[in-house]
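Researcher: Structure prediction, please.
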Amino acid sequence: MPTNHTFVGRHATQNRPGRHHTFCAAPLAAQRTGSSPTTTGSVSTAPAELSSGYWGAGGSWPPSRPTQKQSTNGPVVFTIGPVTPGQPRRPLVEICTDSLDGSIAVEQAGADRVELCADLPLGGTTPSGGMMTAVCEALTLPVAVMIRPRAGDFLYSEGEREIMRRDIELAKQAGAAAIVLGLLTPDGQVHVAATRDLIERARPLEVTFHRAFDMSREPYEALRALIDLGIDRLLTSGQVADVSAGLALVSELVAAAGAQLSVMPGCGVQEHNAREIIEATGAREIHFSARERRDGGMTFRNPACAMGTPEVPGEFERDATSVDRIRALLVQLGG
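Model: Predicted structure follows.
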């Protein structure tokens, strides 16, 4: 039977010397019942118990997108459609970077949020405590900190989860505005219990579930779990290597989530396709790396020795965040 849901807005304000950040997280999700949408032939439909409140109204799949975020307990944060005073003029742009210089470049370029990682060529891991603090102190932009103890899959031992708990505390102490994480079970489902534990430790910060989602077995079940957990934001490429090939799924996820969380496309976003991605999906945020390869500056280079592996940039070159690429993307999005 249909279930009525009540959502309560969360707000957190953070004060540090010389800085004042206020950010709004998505509503808390109440307990929900029902099963995921099913597909018959080429037409996908939501079960009757999901025909209102959760997946949207009308019973069809995907449901129509709302024109703006609705809340009885908090402000309208995002808008899709006509711009009114006090609402964003373009989608929010998040830039991932793995350095202090890159983070400063993001702010100089005019983007809206930094996702701070280490080891971007490996998909991003947890930055050091020193990096977290230096970046948060240097920027006025909100900083979302990646919490991922290693490269590879997203099945973590209890020891690794303890490291994640401690890193979340370091990020909060550093002044982060959001935590980015993702955990799966061996059979490819969202690890609900472990994720809930980390969310509780992260609050009152926002929480993004990263592209671990793209490695999950069933995207609609995973989305349901994330909404039930109260996740604020989902980063996804549509479960494929490049988001340009996953636009259909991303669009359905945006519609299914509605105002309950923000679905943010990423992986394969470029200056030339960002507008197309937003128009095709209705997403309110977009994720971009803006990387360019630069020479490292060493004048003496020992050709007989190497510290890294072929999968990562060589010792004498590095990936850097490009101000010009960010600005070009913002122009495409109308910023």
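Model: The longest strand covers residues 10-16.
Researcher: Thanks, that helps.
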